[in-house]
Each structure stands twice: as structure tokens, then as C-alpha cells.
Write the C-alpha cells for this entry.
Amino acid sequence: MQDVTLRLLVRRDEAFLRLMLREADRWRLPVDAPRPPLTEILADPHLALYVQSWGRPGDDGVLAEAGGEPIGACWLRLFTEESHGWGYVAPDVPELSLAVAPGWRRRGVGSLLLTGAVARARELGCAGVSLSVMPDNPARGLYERLGFLKVADVEASWTMMLPLGAGTESHDASRAYVQSADPAADYVDEDARHRAAPKTQR
Ligand SMILES: CC(C)(COP(=O)(O)OP(=O)(O)OC[C@H]1O[C@@H](n2cnc3c(N)ncnc32)[C@H](O)[C@@H]1OP(=O)(O)O)[C@@H](O)C(=O)NCCC(=O)NCCS
């Protein structure tokens, strides 16, 4: 792979994260298709909450650069019961988002970012990392390869989680979250079930 480096995300990366949010939301678009204006993406409050006011406590993750330019990001954000994304499981489990700039896909950047963000979450002592993915998104394979497990269905998407406990705790935690995939379980995003069907393709 051409020199690609990872660095930690900082507050000033919000503008780039917006671009990546659009890629994550419109993942079905061919790489050379025109993208909708960012204003359209950010007008959806359920999407905007993944990036708005970037730099608040708990915001973290990694950015990939090539030639000094950003080419992808994998970001982590903590949410609450009251306000959260589609992949929410618990207040101490950040939700992960991932996207690579269209011209840089299938060169290992996504894997590099995901591994880097998971390592970062482990370093921060997070109980785990969760995410939301549509089952037909090829990104799902990437997540499964790293050990993410499906813990719930939310609308048309899967909520997946990678427990990050040490040793056998990890195994136990994984089982606990898998069991909680029952629709009545605590970790399931009940609010999301009752939201208007989002326009998003996530
Ligand atoms: C998903 C995404 C981040 C993957 O990034 P990437 O840099 O292309 O990923 P990698 O090159 O590391 O690919 C790793 C593996 O993922 C799988 N994969 C990734 N994209 C794929 C695609 N379009 N079709 C089939 N498999 C794919 C493959 O198994 C691939 O390994 P391989 O190239 O050796 O076959 C990127 O395609 C992207 O930004 N997509 C749009 C945003 C998105 O869908 N984000 C996830 C939302 S949940």
C-alpha cells in the first residue's frame, strides 16, 4: 500500500468526518457517482449526531493519511440512552463509524483503520465497541473478521459488538451481549424501532 499513516483524530477533523459520514450513510453509491450535498446528510439529526461538535469527551478514533491528505477515518463516540445512534448498546461502549474515501478503497485502508480504532478503544479501557451495519454491506465481513458479533436487529440493520474485556472476561462479555440480542433486552435500541424509517442506507 502507498504510504498510508494513521494518527489520532482531533477536534479540527470534524469537516473530514462529515465527508466520511456521507460515505458511510451512502455506502451503496458507486465510487464514481455524484454525492448528495453535505447539507442533506447533516439535516438528518439521526446522522448529524455522529459528528456534530466533534471533540466532546469520549470522542476518539483514528484518521488515515496519504501524502498529508486525509483518506479515511474510523471514529468512536459515546452516546446516552436519551440520544444515540443506530448501533448503541450501552453508555460505556462507544459506537464506531468507518469510511474510506472512494478512490482509496480495496487497498487495505479500511482494515488498517478498523484495527487501529479497536486498539485505541482497548487502550482507553472501553468495555467494548459497537456499530450498526446493513447485513449486505461488505464492511460486515471486515467486522466479523475482527470478532464483532451480531447482538441486535434495529430496523434493517444489524447492531454488532466487539467486547474488549481481558482474557476469559471477553468471552463471558461476548456471551452476555449475544444473549441480550433478544428484542426485549436492555441493550436493544427500542427508540429506534419507533422512529420514522430513516432515509439512510446504513
Ligand atoms: C467498508 C470500507 C470502509 C472498507 O474499506 P476498504 O479500504 O475498501 O477495506 P479493505 O481494503 O481493508 O478491505 C478489506 C476487506 O473487506 C472486504 N470488502 C471491502 N469492500 C468490499 C467490497 N466493496 N466488496 C466486497 N468486499 C469488500 C473484502 O473482504 C476486503 O478484503 P480483500 O480486498 O482482500 O478482498 C469502504 O468500502 C467504505 O468506506 N465503504 C463506504 C462506507 C461504509 O460502508 N462504511 C461502513 C458503514 S457500516
The pocket of coenzyme A is lined by residues 23-24, 27, 98-100, 105-111, 133, 137-139, 141-142 (CB under 6 Å). The chain is about 30% helix and 25% strand. Residues 166-201 have pLDDT under 50 and may be disordered. Residues 4-194 form a domain with the Aminopeptidase fold (CATH 3.40.630.30).
